[in-house]
Amino acid sequence: xxxxxxxxxxxxxxxxxxxxxxxxxxxxxxxxxxxxxxxxxxxxxxxxxxxxxxxxxxxxxxxxxxxxxxxxxxxxxxxxxxxxxxxxxxxxxxxxxxxxxxxxxxxxxxxxxxxxxxxxxxxxxxxxxxxxxxxxxxxxxxxxxxxxxxxxxxxxxxxxxxxxxxxxxxxxxxxxxxxxxxxxxxxxxxxxxxxxxxxxxxxxxxxxxxxxxxxxxxxxxxxxxxxxxxxxxxxxxxxxxxxxxxxxxxxxxxxxxxxxxxxxxxxxxxxxxxxxxxxxxxxxxxxxxxxxxxxxxxxxxxxxxxxxxxxxxxxxxxxxxxxxxxxxxxxxxxxxxxxxxxxxxxxxxxxxxxxxxxxxxxxxxxxxxxxxxxxxxxxxxxxxxxxxxxxxxxxxxxxxxxxxxxxxxxxxxxxxxxxxxxxxxxxxxxxxxxxxxxxxxxxxxxxxxxxxxxxxxxxxxxxxxxxxxxxxxxxxxx
Amino acid sequence: xxxxxxxxxxxxxxxxxxxxxxxxxxxxxxxxxxxxxxxxxxxxxxxxxxxxxxxxxxxxxxxxxxxxxxxxxxxxxxxxxxxxxxxxxxxxxxxxxxxxxxxxxxxxxxxxxxxxxxxxxxxxxxxxxxxxxxxxxxxxxxxxxxxxxxxxxxxxxxxxxxxxxxxxx
Amino acid sequence: xxxxxxxxxxxxxxxxxxxxxxxxxxxxxxxxxxxxxxxxxxxxxxxxxxxxxxxxxxxxxxxxxxxxxxxxxxxxxxxxxxxxxxxxxxxxxxxxxxxxxxxxxxxxxxxxxxxxxxxxxxxxxxxxxxxxxxxxxxxxxxxxxxxxxxxxxxxxxxxxxxxxxxxxxxxxxxxxxxxxxxxxxxxxxxxxxxxxxxxxxxxxxxxxxxxxxxxxxxxxxxxxxxxxxxxxxxxxxxxxxxxxxxxxxxxxxxxxxxxxxxxxxxxxxxxxx
Amino acid sequence: xxxxxxxxxxxxxxxxxxxxxxxxxxxxxxxxxxxxxxxxxxxxxxxxxxxxxxxxxxxxxxxxxxxxxxxxxxxxxxxxxxxxxxxxxxxxxxxxxxxxxxxxxxxxxxxxxxxxxxxxxxxxxxxxxxxxxxxxxxxxxxxxxxxxxxxxxxxxxxxxxxxxxxxxxxxxxxxxxxxxxxxxxxxxxxxxxxxxxxxxxxxxxxxxxxxxxxxxxxxxxxxxxxxxxxxxxxxxxxxxxxxxxxxxxxxxxxxxxxxxxxxxxxxxxxxxxxxxxxxxxxxxxxxxxxxxxxxxxxxxxxxxxxxxxxxxxxxxxxxxxxxxxxxxxxxxxxxxxxxxxxxxxxxxxxxxxxxxxxxxxxxxxxxxxxxxxxxxxxxxxxxxxxxxxxxxxxxxxxxxxxxxxxxxxxxxxxxxxxxxxxxxxxxxxxxxxxxxxxxxxxxxxxxxxxxxxxxxxxxxxxxxxxxxxxxxxxxxxxxxxxxxxxxxxxxxxxxxxxxxxxxxxxxxxxxxxxxxxxxxxxxxxxxxxxxxxxxxxxxxxxxxxxxxxxxxxxxxxxxxxxxxxxxxxxxxxxxxxxxxxxxxxxxxxxxxxxxxxxxxxxxxxxxxxxxxxxxxxxxxxxxxxxxxxxxxxxxxxxxxxxxxxxxxxxxxxxxxxxxxxxxxxxxxxxxxxxxxxxxxxxxxxxxxxxxxxxxxxxxxxxxxxxxxxxxxxxxxxxxxxxxxxxxxxxxxxxxxxxxxxxxxxxxxxxxxxxxxxxxxxxxxxxxx
Lengths: 478, 169, 273, 768
Known about the structure:
The complex is a heterotetramer.
Chain A: H1 2-26, H2 45-69, H3 76-100, H4 104-114, H5 120-143, H6 145-151, H7 156-162, H8 169-202, H9 209-237, H10 243-268, H11 273-283, H12 288-308, H13 315-343, H14 358-381, H15 400-425, H16 441-461
Chain B: H1 3-25, H2 40-45, H3 50-53, H4 68-75, H5 87-94, H6 114-120, H7 148-157, H8 164-167
Helix pairs in contact in B: 4-5
Chain D: H1 6-25, E1 48-54, E2 63-69, E3 72-78, H2 91-100, E4 110-113, E5 120-123, H3 126-142, E6 149-153, H4 159-171, E7 176-178, H5 185-195, E8 202-203, E9 210-214, H6 217-220, H7 225-234, E10 238-242, E11 253-255, H8 262-275, H9 281-287, E12 288-289, E13 294-296, E14 300-302, H10 305-312, H11 315-322, H12 326-338, E15 342-346, H13 356-369, E16 379-380, H14 397-404, H15 426-432, E17 440-444, H16 448-451, H17 455-464, E18 467-470, E19 484-485, E20 496-501, E21 507-512, H18 525-536, H19 538-543, H20 549-563, H21 573-583, E22 585-587, E23 607-608, H22 612-620, H23 623-629, E24 653-658, H24 672-675, E25 688-691, H25 693-699, E26 706-710, E27 715-722, E28 730-734, E29 760-766
Parallel strand pairs in D: 6-7, 6-17, 9-10, 9-15, 10-11, 12-23, 17-18, 18-19, 24-28, 25-27
Antiparallel strand pairs in D: 1-2, 2-3, 4-5, 4-19, 8-16, 13-14, 20-21, 21-22, 24-29, 25-28, 26-27, 26-29
Helix pairs in contact in D: 3-18, 4-18, 5-13, 8-11, 8-12, 8-13, 15-17, 20-21
């Protein structure tokens, strides 16, 4: 059974890879994307996938951070799963973006060299794809160090992650502190990433602003719902505590229904013909089937998640709820993105059509399968992370000054580099229409943020002052 | 574990990447052959200006190459004692066209105007091209290996336009 | 202090890790500087104090809807025809297109890029592939473009085109205009107001030491040149003496989607009734 | 156990650094597999020039200039000095570039291998090809039946066409059949019978106040459209367009009308003008013949227009035919009369019905009633440069006998008493071998299979002719059924002189010159004619004595030049030619339009509303013909109700095939620039059936549905496009795409032979 599932996922990945190869060979003409205005949508399934996975991942990371900040012991394993889920989701969203780009290779060269912060995509690529991913990996590595240390004898890679780990009270206490502060610091980052994504999807030129901002809220809330539902399923499947998640899920789903319905009503009542066209297309036009399906799914999911609330609810029940929520959120993303392009243009262009092609579905399926595989692999490989515990009593750690110094230096230098990089990328000191004064400034920005993310690593890794005689004792190898 | 092996691998990788870079720099001129063994040196020592043969250099984007008719302005009657000199008249006798091989090529998306550089910016040919006084044979290798950074550096120092569309098309 | 069994070994590797990180950072930095030196286009001083605002005026009263401007644009700018292939034909590229109907017009309306003073497409480009030149043209440098199509989503006028497949010209490429680079698959392209023609005209005027008059500019872009009814006029909107500025001040002048706040430099003269 | 050591770390870092270095170094990652400037011989020179020529994509004769970079034509623009277009150029003219470099051009003469239409071809040399044709033609002459050679010639106004005429005259065949009857034959003939000159009238639109356009062709796609467009560049007249379909161009008012009802509208407008005393009395008295009753020496007492319209054409009476309310007719009439200079124009689309000639004459009569002739903002006579033909060719006995034979299409006989040709009758004549069998068929600049109705009849006919020669540059549908394909040069590679019928009224002689070196082993038709004549020898060779076509052109221009009484004329033909090459042609300044109405070349010297020519000709026709055709035997426009093919119950809709702005008569569908012109929204490639939403609701159709359009003789698939721009009861479909012509039932105006394009009824049903 398990093997069959893995085989199926691998097969899906292969199909996706083949489809993507087709797209690379023949161009994006193999998709059903078309020019806006000439009767189609330029952003389709891939971008919908990106929006879905990234928001679900960020939501799940936010949950992880919240749990860790609250130092909740019973939810500790859920936080670990949330981290893994976030990692897999971010990778999936990256895959979607890569599949969507017309020239992925050029993107890899041009983005780091010439990225422009005023584009919301800058935030997507740096904060969401870059920093969040990096931070999640760092967070995960830090949280699981004790577990890695136990396995350190089996492989050098594990030892690398666990390097410097000591099973001492002071180390444990330090870890707890690191964990708390890292979670607290990353919380705004992940939330910010969510909002940036919402802005990318919601606020569009040529449309009255309030409508777009309304959709940002809907995006964030529904993204949280998707993240929560996936997390609830994963925790329930691994027999962890999931009731609070299910409770949150019910609330989020209900809120989404409310937001979607009121958004539609508001859109119908705007004086702007383009917004009205868009709203009509949802209500009783070309996209009405999907719109009503979305509402029904959300409604059913809200009720079903109330049922999951109970501890006795089965895994199948949880899986069904998750599927409902995720489908509904996916449709919500799809409608916001595609229906606006096909029916919501400001000028009287003919209405467009978009029916994702087989290639697009295959690539998306491949990305999802790959993400699931990564998630399964990570749960298999990663040792359980220890939740932050209240500081135990014990001797004060030694060598604190150097550690604090380096950590602070990392933070300050990182902040400075990020600031300078951002300012330079934004075109400070260069003419408004020209490239930044220093190509690669986005890299400086990124490097700065990475450095900041690495600060807790320094705090964790810098050794305590050696007690005499300890340094020469040979390692205890089995 | 074997440290020497790692070092060799490292060395090979570094050498290979540099070799690759060097390879990318060379343009694929190959076995270029010009129709005539024309010597820039001889023409320049006869006090000829570049624009005498490359007529578009002052007013056009392309500097252009001399046609057979341009050559015949002087070479109708034998000039000098070079053994190859009569060959140019042989072209006329054969009714053959003189097809010089252009060596310096621009990337497809780059616009370069000789007029703008020579006439408007009063640049000397030597600022970009090599010194043709020393060239005794018809060139078979491109003499300009400019990159965008070179263009930009010069434009910056001379306060020329740095707008992308000034040079891109 | 209690020590775990692995302390020393692991601690040793910690130092190595830090050293390794430092080394790779140095390596990456070296690479970056190299790349930066190769690619940077930062200015020391913005040049040529010209404050021209190139713009078009399209008189819908005159326009006969013959489509001459569309073909002229395709020919001038090496826009490949989509062809009859089913996958490609749904994705034609028309820098100059026809809007089925527009404010101020009862029938199809020619619509090029609006060359907004405040272009939304420029704001969203993550790599600066599209930008506004100092003379007000919204330009697209396709070598820079990564094909994310955000600009297409952002443009309220839908005036941008993506190359969904490799461009193919019927027969050979013999009829390509050498002044305009063909665009490969995977990049976005758009109207440049025939910038290459403007550039050539400016250069010609400077080389010949003759002033560039409004008369020579009026029909400069290929669309304006081809227009049988002289419905399309090009010129410098910042020059109050120019024909475009005069027309733009007409009571018939309208701009598309003024509520988008983009301030287009393509101005329509609406039909009289 | 492998330990992770510092060296590995450092090594890895160095590798990463090297990799990044390598990336930064990467040069020119932006490659396209086609360079902007391909390697062609001579490309190094940077040579660039502009060559002037004359556009050949329609009859307008616009001046063009072609940008040639290193021997390749890269851009076509309008010639700013040319009187026809003054620098403008429509989509069609610019697309000529695409035809020049078209991948499907025929590279050399082809001989059919295998059975007809099998698609097996063998490239042969020109000598072989011409030898074959000469042998066949010589056999025809030897058998004494030169009339069995038929030429269908799609060109008009070119010297090539004149040379064909000359060749046929010397050879002995009367069958030089043009495509006039499929275009605006009614308008041209109306001009002949009312004003004495065959051809399209010229309009002083730049000074006109109101333009009542009957049909959309004039505004959209005809050769005169360019003049209309040019006029709009200074001051556009108010355009009232009467048509079943809303025009795609700029207009002020659209008056939907039932197909075939134009004549009734014109006559009821005349009724209102007469009734309300809005006509130009003085002009009508002095310069119009047939307004009141007249006595014809042959045909007897004739009723005048005044009485005819008063009795028969009240707006209430014509309402049924036109679908136009009485109030609208009255408003239109008053608007025309009030504005001072208002012209009514008709075109090929208005006269493409079974009552085409009468319709055109009725519309023409409106202008006479309004006094619009030769005054500012009015109608002018068609002008010609007046290039004299070559000297009269010698026709020997065989040729004289052949020339005396009746024309195969029945022009000038009882079958087509007032027309000049009816190409649509050719396939029937060939298959029935009446009046005689056809032994050789030449197709020059035409693809009747794709462009004309009656595809099956054409296929049957082509199969019956022993020698079919196509001069098409492409293997078009007709060429595929030919025995020999002798690929013509495209206009950008050839020499040609065109007599331009300028809508502005200036006499223009357009020149075409080779812009680029010929791309393929092709020959211009003119040169083939010269070679054929040379091969046939005798009186034919004496009639076409030139070495090449260019010589023939020069000789003719020489003759014209010597007859020219113009002080500014060039001294000799060489300087004339070089002047024409510099300018793209030769023209005079606009003829004086303000001069009052002078004598017209009609029997009465006046504008003949009642044509004495028609009256006389019909009086002379055999009585049986008159009886059988119900000829009213009057010089007045014998307007009758339009005739439609198809049972109205079975086929409830009228088919209106129209020529869109990008319509090119011959080979336009080969040009993707035109096929993709976004004048229709969405995917421009599929054929569209434009239908009124009311009809769509009646037949259960939605926008974008796949539909089958069926006529009594054929059917084709299309995409339904709901549009309030077509009248109720009408399906409008653009010509130029395969399928539409196959729906059209062959019917014609029995007087003029004008093809009734709009005389077919259809039904539309949804298919999956």
